[in-house]
From TrEMBL:
A Pfam family per the record: AP_endonuc_2
Keyword annotations of the record: Isomerase, Manganese, Metal-binding
Gene3D superfamilies: Divalent-metal-dependent TIM barrel enzymes
Lineage summary: Bacteria, Pseudomonadati, Bacteroidota, Flavobacteriia, Flavobacteriales
SUPFAM superfamilies listed in its UniProt record: Xylose isomerase-like
GO molecular function: isomerase activity; metal ion binding
Record domain Xylose isomerase-like TIM barrel: where: 100-285
Protein name (database record): TIM barrel protein
Keyword Nucleotide-binding: no
Taxonomic source organism: Polaribacter marinus
InterPro entries: L-rhamnose_isomerase (IPR050337), Xyl_isomerase-like_sf (IPR036237), Xyl_isomerase-like_TIM-brl (IPR013022)
Length: 423
């Protein structure tokens, strides 16, 4: 299924007059509105290949119908999201869930849809069919060198798949850790992980980046080898200039000050990428912005400041969604996540940085809070809509998705029972 420009233009027609009125009144209130629209209209977030079908919990899964049953169809679904939002021009692939069997064909398909290949993700947290050694007791950290070698070889292969597709980065997330005190020697596990990572790093093309994701618990509930940003940072530093820390919003203990972590990593030029999602309890992988939109805004405040005051040469972080959903239509859910990310970004761009700096220098706590909250309380829906409109996207992408009956079309095309690989 593909949506064409004309369908979107027809859809936009009914909303256009009201939208333009809103834009005029917003422009009167904010002096840098053009700049914000411009930044948002050039902003893109990678879609995870594992989130295009119905997500499940370990207790069950409920299908939607019309799910993509191969990588080509997944790219088509991202094409739909991108046509509507004009903010999702890349895919992040998880191997082996989405092996590009014919790289040239996949590349051509992606190109025809205007989709690029963002970070590749390896998977040594599940045993794969035909695999010689089990990851039951870890992968890159394993006590047995043969298991570590197998996990290293897998990561190298993922890099090779990525090279064939034109990707420029690898994200490594390890489930490695222990469930019981005494099970694992922490220091040996760390050293094994580091030496395995060094082998993978040596295979990295010179224009690639390696992102190291951390997580405090799950699936291991006593210890995780890469439990926090400090551990990830240490490993990245030991590897070299192409290695960075990746922050997944769900990978923190409750109430962690994530914006502070973001600022600290950027001070050292070490923030490589982001996995956006939201959570109430742990790694809930809920749609972005549903639980803590203010936290997301404060994170973007640090990101905006970090990108504008970049003496540490932090690269522009790789932006990715990492959310899963067992109730919503996966495409609608991803559109909602994109809107939430852009909402937080646009609001952060509205912060009067000069006024904030002066309030901070004068220790005027009340004024600093007012500046942040003024920006946070601004309705930026119109900014997002205008950014999309200028790229021929939909003024209201969810409404367009529903008016164009995308899910029904997909069900007609692929059937009610098709299922996608992923979480
Ligand atoms: C682990 C994680 C990691 C995986 C993805 C499927 O919780 O966030 O990024 O690759 O989920
Ligand atoms: Mn993640
Ligand atoms: Mn996660």
């Amino acid at each position: 299924m593909q949506i064409d420009k004309k369908q979107i233009a027809t859809f936009n027609k009914n909303l256009l007059v009201e939208h333009k009125e809103n834009l005029t009144s917003l422009s009167k209130k904010h002096k840098n509105i053009e700049q914000v629209i411009d930044t948002i209209s050039n902003y893109n977030i990678a879609i995870p290949s594992w989130a295009l079908g119905a997500g499940g919990t370990r207790f069950g899964k409920f299908g939607f119908g019309g799910e993509p049953s191969n990588l080509e169809q997944k790219l088509e679904d991202i094409g739909v999201i991108n046509t509507l939002t004009k903010s999702a021009n890349a895919v992040s692939l998880h191997i082996p869930w989405d092996i590009p069997k014919d790289a040239e064909a996949i590349k051509a398909k992606a190109k025809s849809l205007g989709i690029q290949f963002d970070a590749m993700n390896s998977n040594t947290f599940q045993d794969q069919e035909g695999q010689e050694h089990s990851y039951k007791f870890g992968s890159l950290c394993h006590t047995d060198k043969k298991v570590r070698d197998q996990a290293v070889a897998h990561n190298k292969q993922v890099i090779d798949y990525g090279v064939a597709l034109g990707s420029k980065s690898l994200t490594i997330w390890l489930a490695d850790g222990s469930n019981f005190p005494g099970q694992l020697n922490f220091r040996r596990a760390f050293e094994n992980t580091l030496s395995s990572l060094k082998e993978i790093y040596a295979h990295l093309p010179s224009d690639w980046k390696l992102f190291i994701e951390y997580k405090p618990y799950e699936p291991n509930f006593y210890s995780m080898v890469i439990q926090d940003w400090g551990t990830s940072h240490m490993l990245a530093k030991d590897l070299g200039e192409q290695a960075y820390t990746l922050v997944d919003l769900g990978h923190h203990l409750p109430n962690t000050n994530i914006e502070h972590i973001v600022a600290t990593l950027m001070t050292r030029g070490m923030l490589g990428g982001f996995h956006f999602n939201d959570s109430k309890y742990g790694d809930d992988d809920l749609s972005v912005g549903v639980i803590k939109p203010y936290q997301l805004f404060l994170i973007f405040n640090e990101l905006v400041f970090g990108m504008e005051n970049n003496s540490s040469n932090n690269p522009i972080p790789a932006w990715m969604i990492d959310a899963s959903h067992n109730l919503k239509d996966p495409l609608e859910d991803l559109i909602q996540s994109i809107e939430a990310i852009e909402t937080a970004y646009a609001k952060a761009l509205l912060i009067d940085q000069e006024a904030l700096e002066s309030a901070q220098l004068n220790n005027d706590v009340v004024e600093a809070q007012r500046i942040l909250q003024d920006a946070f309380n601004t309705d930026v829906k119109t900014i997002l809509a205008e950014a999309r409109l200028r790229n021929d996207g939909a003024i209201d992408p969810i409404l367009a998705f529903r008016n164009l009956e995308v899910r029904n079309e997909l069900i007609k095309e692929r059937g009610l029972k098709s299922t996608a690989t992923g979480l």
